[in-house]
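debug: dumping io for the single-chain case to check the tokenizer round-trip. Nothing else runs in this session.
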Amino acid sequence: MSLGFLIKEGLTGLKRAKFPSFAAVLTIAISLTLLGMSYLIGNELYSLLSNMRAKVNIEVFLLPSATEIDRATIAESLDSHEAVAAYEFISKEEAAARFQEEFGEDIYAVLGENPLPVSYTVDLTSAHRTSDAVSAFVQELRRLPGVDEVRYRQTFLRLLERYYKAALVAGGVILAVILGAAILLVANTIKLSIFAKREIIRIMRLVGATDLFIQTPFIVEGIVHGILGAGLALVLLSGIISGTNYLFVGIVETDIQMGYPLLVGVLITGTLFGLIGSTRSIRMFLSNGRM
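debug: decoded output
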């Protein structure tokens, strides 16, 4: 028999066992939707972490006795350091203007003088926004001549990383559970389709059909289940994404997108679900001679 005939038989099998086929497609769709939502949540958490890290900068305060040579040394060190994305020199006058803008008070009127120090505000590159990298860089800055104090949001950065790692571990565990349950559910659901055709399989074996000949239509059917389930999952995910963006518009900055990686990932994963589930089920049936 030709491959075309076997593929045609696999597609025909969808019509013969409509309920098991529908159950298999629905199971795959729900599983993929849950996996897709897990991916989107993880991606949003990573984006949130990156945005919050981007707001963490370093403030380098200079001693009142710092000389122009000290300032030049500090500026040269910042210019050449790989951790520095950009930096800004803040004079005493600019510091006073920022104080007034933030607190609404003229520091000269309050204190009669300007005790605010000269400083540098340093923005970091994305690769050096981890707590360990920032801590190492801060130690270098503190050793520079003319530096009085170096401040950054150390506690905030460490808490941010700690909670992100905890969320990452929890997300990985949840994803693994969903993935394992999905494969098991798909395999068991496809068993229903194979069980509905058990008499046909036994007749085929009696007339001398090889295991490969018997398996191929069911594998094709499983792949079709996977593709249809993936298509339905993409529709559901698209609806969830649109609904989420609509509900939170104006409340938080969110613009969740389907994205090419998620689209391809769902299609490939759905196909693999159908392939693995059908292959596992039909091989178990043939090896046991029963369900």
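debug: round-trip ok. The CA atoms of residues 284 and 291 lie 8 Å apart.
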